[in-house]
Amino acid sequence: MYQIISWIVRYVFIALIYYFIYSIIKLIYLDIQAINKQGKRNIDNPYLKLINRKDRLDFNVHEFYDLGEVTTIGRGNKSDIQLADKYISTNHAKITLDEGSYFIEDVGSVNGTYLNNTQIEDVVELKEGDRIGLGQVEFIFVKEVE
């Protein structure tokens, strides 16, 4: 009788181990799939690339953001680039495409928008490699396509 119970417990234990391994593999697969979805971008568009280390930020931020003709940045739901940083205003900054060049302007943010560590007061043209600082986040402007 004890031998039968021993065999049953043994097989249940082995089944639990296999289920645990299956769950771990499934989670790893879903994480890789989420990273791949996040990592897809239109390679023809200029973009903003995150400079900060993501693990030091207390909110979610993507590694890069494609820029359209008009791209708004802020904490609000209507922003194209939405950042949940407490130092970023609801409507913080706007990047606009005009005659083949991109321009950035601060749209009345409380903490300001910085371009190459200098606070901008007016509309400024972006150049390849410019550093854009917003709250705790810093991006680099990449225009040339690889």
From TrEMBL:
Domain of life: Bacteria
Pfam families found in the cross-reference section: FHA
Transmembrane segments: 12-32
UniProt xrefs under InterPro entries: Cell_Proc_Reg/RNA_Proc, FHA_dom, SMAD_FHA_dom_sf
PROSITE patterns hit by this protein: FHA_DOMAIN
This protein's record includes keyword Aminoacyl-tRNA synthetase: no
CDD domains tied to this protein: FHA (cd00060)
Keywords on record: Membrane, Transmembrane, Transmembrane helix
Presence of the UniProt keyword Transferase in the record: no
Domain FHA: 71-120
Entry-linked PANTHER family: NUCLEAR INHIBITOR OF PROTEIN PHOSPHATASE-1
Name listed for the protein in its UniProt record: FHA domain-containing protein
Species the sequence originates in: Alkaliphilus pronyensis
